What we know:
The protein has helices at residues 57-66, 76-80, 85-103, 107-110, 130-140, 155-165, 180-190, 207-215, 233-236, 247-250, 253-265, 279-286, 299-302, and strands spanning 5-21, 24-38, 41-47, 123-125, 145-149, 169-173, 195-199, 221-223, 242-245, 269-273, 294-296, 308-309, 312-314, 317-319, 329-330. It has an eight-stranded parallel beta sheet with strand order 4-5-6-7-8-9-10-11. Strands 1-2-3 form a three-stranded antiparallel beta sheet. Strands 12-15 form a two-stranded antiparallel sheet. It has 13 helices and 15 strands. It folds into two domains: 5-107, Enolase-like, N-terminal domain (Enolase-like, domain 1, 2-Layer Sandwich); 115-329, Enolase-like C-terminal domain (TIM Barrel, Alpha-Beta Barrel). The two termini are 22 Å apart. Helix 1 packs across helix 3 (85-103). The chain is of the alpha/beta class. The radius of gyration is 20 Å and the shape is globular.
Amino acid sequence: MATIELDSELLELPLVHEFTIARGSETTARSVVVHLRWNGIAALGESAPSERYAESVESVRRALAEHALQADPYLLDAQLAGLPPAARCALDIALHDAIGKDLDRPLYRLLGLDPAQTPSTSFTLGIAPLEATLAKVRAVGTHPILKIKLGRGDEIDTIAAIREIYTGAIRIDANEGWTPEQSVTLLSELARFDIEFCEQPIPAGSPERLRWIRERSTIPIVTDEDSRDAGDLAALAGCVDGVNVKLVKCGGIRGALAMIHTARAVGLKIMLGCMVESQILTTAAAHLSPLVDWADLDGPFLTARDPYDGIRYDGGKIVLPAGPGLGVRAKLPGVKRSGTRP
Length: 342
């Protein structure tokens, strides 16, 4: 049987605008792209690790370089065992891409999913001065869903001004930026603006405090930083309304499927989210989107130059590529690569 060859590259993605959340700002996103070769097949994977979870592009590349691979890509659990989540995510996606190409089927077909059932995605706006935020809202035009980053003050004025010019659905995300008491006060005031849900209002690690907020808020509560993988969900049941599933947090497609099925079992709704990343990682997540309630797969909206083509959008609705595996193809030449396996 043919052996698997693997190498990685650092991918730097300039952003359309500086992207600011409660924890900080960035003008360039950094991710790791994995190139897997097996049996004449070239497959792609990606991870966009976050320092919030004590991972980095350097730690991902190091873990992949040191990881022993078996010859058979179909042995997914054995291939992924022992890797930390962000590195596991990159390899997991590449293996699924290789399997889909080997079978000449899109990933959504391997999973038994209907591509017509994809949801519409939100379009995320980072924290910015009010006039800059409103200019971005106007530029978004008729996109049906906005997710507004909050957590640094001026929350009420920001949402009130957006609501004056935007009639679509609004979701908000504080990225752990509030206290429980602030959350209750702010959500009470924001309720009049028809907010679909609030994501991660307080620092992770206190499910009972989330329950306390939820009991006092008419706006549903969704976790992100509190819901890293399937093992986190039992503690959140009854405390929140839904969870954000991100492939980088949970270790890829297999980890995301485990989270989705666990969330359904304990009565939680599901949002499928992303980091700021290329089309490789966003498209991998999008193949799972027929299984979820909400999508926040807007990475391609936020980057100025993406070397890959993948999903498209039809009025905000996710359109999956029809090609085998992920269906992602290289678009721009000249991406600088540095192998991790000499």
